[in-house]
Design goal:
This protein is globular. A two-stranded antiparallel ribbon has the order 1-4. A two-stranded antiparallel sheet has the order 2-3. A two-stranded antiparallel ribbon has the order 5-8. Strand 6 and strand 7 (138-139) form a beta hairpin. It is of the alpha+beta class and 152 residues long. The protein is built from four helices and eight strands, in the order αββββαααββββ. InterPro entries: Cyt_P450, Cyt_P450_E_grp-IV, Cyt_P450_sf.
């Protein structure tokens, strides 16, 4: 699983555009100052929005709305992760998700199991998936797919 750089990049790119948790909040234990100079007082609630951050031109560039796994690969084709503060899907710092690596392995395992047995495509390629507001990600109206078993 560790040598599948393009698959890892595709998983990260998918989660960048469609994070499982659209927004999250934390409460400050002490007074602090954010990197942009914003003062945070003890007890303040700070909310961040991975869905919006995954679409910010200042972080991802002018092609930010495109699904482009190559953005995660270096010149040698090796996966290179971004800062968890630019890509907060698994949070960052002392609050980084303990199950992150297991989740990535599980996603890659499922993807490989599916693509070995099935051809999968979006039923309507012109359909733009839209998130429904909520704590966890849901797609408004679903995403219709065509799944065909591969004949061997």
């Amino acid at each position: 699983m560790t040598e599948m750089h393009y698959l890892t990049s595709a998983v990260y790119e998918t989660l960048r555009l469609f994070p499982p948790v659209q927004f999250d909040s934390k409460f400050a234990l002490n007074d602090d100052v954010l990197p942009d100079g914003t003062i945070v007082r003890k007890g303040d609630r700070v909310t961040y929005h991975p869905y919006a951050m995954g679409r910010m031109e200042s972080i991802w560039g002018p092609d930010r709305l495109e699904f482009r796994p190559e953005r995660w690969l270096n010149d040698d084709g090796l996966f290179v992760p971004r800062s968890p503060y630019e890509y907060p899907v698994f949070q960052g710092g002392s609050r980084v998700c303990l199950g992150k690596e297991m989740a990535i392995v599980e996603m890659k395992t499922v993807i490989l199991a599916v693509i070995r047995r099935f051809n999968v495509r979006v039923a309507d390629p012109g359909h733009e998936p839209r998130f429904s507001p909520g704590l966890t990600a849901t797609v408004s109206g679903g995403l219709r797919m065509v799944v065909e078993e591969v004949k061997r």
